[in-house]
Design a protein that fits this description.
By secondary structure, the protein is an all-alpha fold. It is built from 9 helices and no strands. The two termini are 129 Å apart. 9% of the residues are buried.
Length: 350
């Protein structure tokens, strides 16, 4: 993947969605450098040397077969052309020598044949035959030399063929070595270009993944902040609502308390009015009783027997202050009544 394409892809990513889309659409595409390197490799592979075919193996096999299957040396002078040539020569010369010897012997005897002449002729003829027999070892050695020479020529020819085969195979092996050397070089170039190109692609995938994770983290943090803000707003609203409710409850309680105070004050005022009425009645009764008592006890000391108005009020007020902590309205009214009755009883007892 070309670096420019990678930069274009990364520049188009601005958020999590575009990063995920880029990851989904991303696919590895070979760059021109990779395609060129692989094309060079394929062209080189198209020129791979074939299997080695020897141009000399058939001749080598034939020559080797001749050497291995060659018959051992044997010599039969009767079949030797040279021997036949020598034989014809020596027999002819022996016959001539025999005839000459016999002619010479006949000349010595006046032209008549004799046993001496026959013996002389035979001896001359045998001399040539002996010379012919002396040629047999020479002919044998000559035949053996020819046999050895032919063998040497065959081995030399085999060596030449083997040398030519070795040279041909060496040239083929050099061609094969050059091919595999070039194959290694082109393979390394193609592999290096592919690895570099694919690494750029993988780097782009890693970068897209990092960007997606980064934007996802940003989105998550933004969502969390939004949740926190909503939670804070709800908490504030709940707190404000609780304040309003508390204030309403306090206002209701205050109104209820005020109403209770007004009602208590009204009851207190009514009780006090009733008490004052009862007090006035009690005073009237006391005044009447005092008048009756004065009539009956004229001799009693006015100072000792009299309970002044001031003393009675003080007695009632003291009793009222003593009982004042009571919170019940009815109880307070009852206390006032009892205090008044107590004062009256004390007055009567005196």
């Amino acid at each position: 993947m070309a670096s420019r394409k990678k930069e274009n892809v990364l520049q188009g990513v601005t958020d999590k969605t575009s990063a995920e889309q880029a990851l989904q659409e991303a696919s590895y595409e070979k760059s021109q450098a990779v395609l060129d390197a692989q094309n060079q490799l394929e062209q080189h592979m198209a020129h791979k040397p074939g299997e080695y075919t020897s141009g000399y193996q058939q001749q080598i096999d034939g020559m080797l077969d001749q050497i291995l299957n060659r018959e051992g040396f044997t010599y039969d002078f009767s079949t030797d052309p040279m021997y036949q040539s020598y034989k014809n020569q020596y027999v002819h010369e022996g016959r001539l020598a025999m005839q000459n010897s016999m002619a010479e012997a006949a000349a010595l005897t006046g032209g008549y044949g004799s046993s001496y002449g026959v013996a002389a002729g035979s001896q001359a003829y045998q001399g040539y035959l002996n010379q012919l027999n002396d040629k047999i070892p020479v002919l044998y050695q000559a035949a053996l030399d020819r046999y050895d020479s032919e063998g040497k020529q065959m081995h030399d020819a085999l060596d030449d063929l083997l040398g030519a085969e070795k040279a041909a195979h060496t040239a083929y092996q050099a061609e094969v070595d050059n091919y595999y050397k070039g194959l290694s070089q082109y393979s390394d170039l193609a592999d290096s270009a592919y690895k570099k190109d694919y690494q750029e692609y993988q780097d782009m995938i890693d970068s897209l993944t990092d960007m997606r994770d980064y934007y996802a983290a940003q989105d998550e943090q933004a969502f969390k902040r939004k949740q926190d803000e909503l939670a804070h707003e709800l908490a504030v609203k709940k707190f404000e609502e609780s304040i309003r409710q508390w204030q309403a409850e306090q206002a209701a309680a205050a109104a209820k308390q005020a109403e209770a105070v007004r009602q208590w004050e009204a009851e207190q005022a009514a009780a006090e009015a009733k008490w004052r009425a009862q007090l006035a009645q009690s005073r009237a009764e006391l005044a009447y009783k005092r008048g009756q008592a004065n009539k009956k006890e004229k001799t009693a000391s006015a100072h000792s027997s009299k309970i002044t108005k001031r003393e009675m009020v003080q007695m009632i007020t003291a009793a009222d202050d003593k009982k004042k902590p009571a919170s019940s309205k009815k109880a307070q009214a009852q206390i006032r009544t009892e205090a008044m009755r107590d004062a009256m009883n004390r007055y009567m007892m005196k």
